[in-house]
Amino acid sequence: MRDPKKSAGGAHGRRGSKGSAPAASDPSNDGGYNAGMAVFSYIIGGIIVWSLIGWGLDYLWGTRWIVLAGALLGAVGGFYLSHMHGLTSSRKNADERHAPGAPSQDGEDNAK
């Protein structure tokens, strides 16, 4: 099955010259903002949900520390989920927009 976002630009061709702005549906335009919002929502959502679970357990058992453990567990779990979805990596190998992390194979510096 083909991705409709990827096939939309290739099937009809791109209009304009190289200097024109890419289409609004291009996923590379808003990836940083969307990824940041997703990481933020995973972490904040995890803190809220697990704090409420901890608060309920504190109420049932008469303790006062489980809500804090739940908040910490939610933050760690939210970061883990965002990492597993690939939202926290700083390098994008598929785009080839970032410089490689190692020197070139011939050992020469290619900077101009």
What's the quick description here?
With 112 residues, the chain is an all-alpha fold.
Structure description:
- With 112 residues, this protein is an all-alpha fold.
- It has a domain at 46-89.
- It has three helices and no strands.
- Helix 2 packs antiparallel against helix 3 (66-84).
- The longest helix has 31 residues, at 31-61.
- The protein is elongated and about 65 Å long.
SSE topology:
Layout (H helix, E strand, L loop, with lengths): L3 H9 L18 H31 L4 H19 L28
Q: Span between N and C termini?
A: 43 Å
Report the average pLDDT across residues. 75
Molecular shape? elongated
The largest sheet, given as strand count, sense and whether it forms a barrel, is: none
In terms of per-residue confidence, which ranges show pLDDT below 50 for 5 or more consecutive residues?
13-17
**Considering DSSP H and I runs of 4 or more, what fraction of the residues is helical?**
40-55%
How many strand elements?
0
Protein name: AtpZ/AtpI family protein
Organism: Arthrobacter sedimenti
Keywords: Membrane, Transmembrane, Transmembrane helix
